[in-house]
Design goal:
75% helix, elongated
């Protein structure tokens, strides 16, 4: 196969995989992870289930691709404290409840032994805590105004972000997620 043909085939395959991931996000948002079947995803993208398995050999492989895609949207810089970016991320999340609901449902289910996303979330949270510790260190040095080290404060920062998402999903009329997160930043010492 000539080089150009191979590149075109690879590009079409990558585009098809991206389409499948988007469709999977929609199906999970509608039905939850357990209710999202490969058949439903295949139907949504106009494939047979066997055709879908050509691109993603298992439901678990598809799930991990969905989670990685979601993380690409929400990537934050590691090196410089940018509270405005964190606030912007929380505000952005408040505009996309279906995606946040999918993430929250998968996260909740992943705490069970043997869940296909457990390893992904374990690695993700290790990396997120390290990243948050780095941004806290860049802003405050080795001690925050409270006396906590960045490593001790980082899990609290992550817990507030995720916990606010759960509260907001359950009662969006009562929980102003962006305002509550700005209040938390004030507790950390941000202006």
């Amino acid at each position: 196969m000539p080089y150009g043909d191979a590149m075109a085939t690879r590009t079409r395959s990558e585009e098809r995989r991206a389409e499948i991931v988007r469709a999977t996000l929609e199906v999970i948002a509608e039905r939850g992870y357990r209710g999202a079947s490969l058949a439903a995803v295949a139907e949504r993208v106009g494939l047979t289930q066997q055709g879908l398995l050509h691109h993603f050999p298992t439901k678990e492989a598809l799930l991990v691709a969905v989670l990685k895609e979601r993380d690409q949207w929400d990537a934050l810089p590691d090196t410089t404290w940018r509270a405005d970016l964190l606030v912007s991320l929380v505000e952005y999340n408040a505009m996309r409840p279906a995606i946040i609901q999918t993430f929250a449902a998968l996260l909740g289910e992943s705490v069970t032994e043997g869940h296909p996303a457990r390893e992904f979330f374990t690695r993700r949270y290790t990396a997120v805590r390290a990243s948050m510790a780095s941004v806290l260190r860049a802003e405050y040095g080795e001690r925050l105004p409270s006396g906590l080290t960045p490593e001790r404060a980082a899990p609290l920062l992550v817990a507030v972000m995720d916990g606010l998402q759960y509260q907001w999903l359950l009662d969006p009329e009562s929980v102003d997620m962006p305002a509550a997160f700005r209040d938390f930043l004030t507790l950390l010492g941000e202006d």
